[in-house]
């Protein structure tokens, strides 16, 4: 990978762009391989990356949104200059190999000290390695054409161009100028806040399968009683059909507003289908060679009064059932990291309190050596007992048998990676697959000895409220 030490102002003239283009074209011809020329520019304060999706001119191409409101971080990306769809049990290995090959053919210029500067690859995996919803693949990686990001009051625009041996400067320049015009529109529209949910206006038909879920829980409890399992997570889906298309950008604005402690996300495929949600569960974050991950399992509702809230929190912290469920997740993550040669450190057990629900939470950290790729860690951790069960193979087999449908991207790794080794992946829970006027909402509950089907159904209904309120 060539990282060239060059800094520039946001404005480029044609001569400067032609010089950059020529470097990439010569390299493409020498290597007989396309090059990705990535140009990073600072943006004025106040630009909202979600506006990029709102004004997206590149319909029919992949799009991604990613925001952590509590950290003041947001990324939006549209278009694609390189991408791949993969499947099979070695999909994480295939994805790593594809990405490493791409990184040998990057030319990055600009203000590379800015947060989220340079090339970012966005990745989405399905829960199982062989099945995916229409328009997706079990492993999908994409490098966007345009990326807008913000951390605090610092904004950045990244323009990526694919330079092949036959690419003309006129074609590259036209794409660049389209990006410049789009950035100008974002700046002009920065003072016009997006809608923040509600007011869908259409007629909604809702299809639920609660009896089937309760029967699945009964089957799971039988498997636990006979010693086949110690824990399993059962998922449930609710289908919505609307008289008008669901507004994805409006739903994202609502999710980030009402769930600032979660990751708001959207992965849109070329068919215009979007997998969106607000996940509280980080799978990994690697920054500067340090890994952060979370054991998040064991749940209780929030109380309507401070007194009730404190009572429910104490109950959660002292519940044998919830603590056993949580410990299984914490032990699994630590064991998997040790198997990679890492030395994980677990923080004391604490509460993660969200708007409608609270979880038992153990933060885990570990230094990451340079030779260990982030996707190797993702492959080692997915799926955790927080979304599958213990033992893992038996739990996954029972999930396929009892749930009655495919999870798709639900409870699977979603995230990004850059060429410097930094990355972040979440688990795609509290989520929905949007296809025009149709939406499938997902929720799950951990089943252990002593679980009650009615109570687990209530927990899932509470989790489904996240997406229902955002869409309606």
Structure description:
The protein is an alpha+beta fold and 472 residues long. The chain folds into two domains: 187 residues, no CATH class; 268 residues, 4-Layer Sandwich (Anthranilate synthase). 33% of the residues lie in helices and 32% in strands. The chain is built from eleven helices and 24 strands. The strands form two sheets. Strands 1, 2, 3, 4, 6, 9, 10, 11, 12, 13, 14, 20, 23 and 24 form a 14-stranded mixed beta sheet that branches. Strands 5, 7, 8, 15, 16, 17, 18, 19, 21 and 22 form a ten-stranded antiparallel beta sheet that branches. A hairpin with a 3-residue loop joins strand 18 and strand 19. Helix 5 crosses helix 11 and helix 6 crosses helix 11. It is globular and about 70 Å long. The N and C termini lie far apart (46 Å).
Keywords:
11 helices, Anthranilate synthase, alpha+beta, 10-stranded antiparallel sheet, single chain, 24 strands, 472 residues
Describe what is shown at a glance.
With 472 residues, the protein is α+β, with helices and mostly antiparallel strands. The chain is 33% helix and 32% strand. Strands 1, 2, 3, 4, 6, 9, 10, 11, 12, 13, 14, 20, 23 and 24 form a 14-stranded mixed β-sheet that branches.
């Amino acid at each position: 990978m060539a990282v060239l030490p060059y800094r520039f102002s946001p404005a480029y003239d044609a001569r400067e762009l032609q010089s950059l283009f020529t470097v990439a074209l010569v390299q493409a011809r020498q290597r007989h391989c396309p090059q990705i020329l990535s140009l990073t520019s600072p943006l004025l304060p106040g630009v909202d990356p979600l506006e990029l999706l709102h004004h997206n001119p590149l319909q029919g191409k992949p799009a991604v949104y990613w925001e952590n409101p509590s950290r003041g971080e947001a990324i939006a990306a549209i278009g694609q200059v390189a991408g791949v769809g993969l499947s099979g049990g070695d999909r994480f290995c295939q994805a790593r190999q594809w990405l490493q090959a791409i990184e040998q053919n990057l030319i990055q210029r600009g203000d590379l000290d800015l947060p989220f500067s340079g090339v970012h690859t966005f990745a989405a995996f399905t829960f199982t390695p062989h099945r995916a919803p229409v328009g997706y693949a079990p492993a999908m990686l994409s490098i966007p054409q345009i990326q807008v990001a913000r951390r605090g009051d610092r904004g950045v625009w990244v323009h990526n161009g694919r330079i092949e041996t036959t690419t003309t400067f006129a074609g590259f320049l036209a794409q660049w100028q389209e990006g410049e015009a789009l950035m100008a529109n974002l700046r002009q529209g920065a003072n016009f806040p997006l809608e923040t949910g509600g007011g869908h206006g259409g007629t909604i038909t809702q299809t639920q399968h609660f009896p089937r879920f309760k029967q699945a829980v009964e089957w799971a409890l039988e498997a636990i009683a006979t010693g086949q399992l110690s824990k399993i997570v059962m998922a449930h889906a609710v289908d919505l059909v609307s008289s008008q298309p669901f507004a994805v950008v409006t739903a994202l604005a609502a999710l980030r507003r009402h769930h600032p402690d979660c990751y708001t996300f959207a992965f849109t495929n070329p068919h215009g289908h979007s997998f969106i949600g607000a996940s509280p569960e980080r799978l990994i974050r690697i920054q500067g060679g340090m890994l952060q991950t979370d054991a998040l399992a064991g749940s209780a509702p929030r109380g309507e009064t401070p007194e009730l809230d404190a009572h429910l929190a104490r109950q959660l912290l002292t519940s044998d059932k919830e603590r056993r469920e949580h410990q299984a997740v914490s032990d699994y993550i630590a064991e998997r990291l040790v198997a990679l040669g890492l030395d994980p450190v677990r923080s004391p057990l604490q509460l993660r309190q969200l708007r409608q629900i609270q979880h038992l939470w153990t933060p885990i950290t570990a230094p990451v050596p340079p030779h260990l790729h982030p996707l190797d860690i993702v492959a080692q951790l997915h799926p955790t007992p927080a979304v599958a069960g213990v033992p893992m193979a038996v739990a996954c087999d029972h999930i396929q048998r009892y749930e009655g449908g495919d999870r798709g991207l639900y409870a699977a790794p979603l995230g990004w990676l850059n060429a410097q080794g930094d990355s972040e992946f979440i688990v795609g829970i509290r989520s929905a697959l949007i296809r025009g006027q149709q939406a499938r909402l997902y929720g799950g509950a951990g089943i252990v000895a002593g679980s009650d089907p009615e109570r687990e159904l209530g927990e899932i209904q509470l989790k489904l409220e996240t997406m229902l309120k955002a869409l309606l």
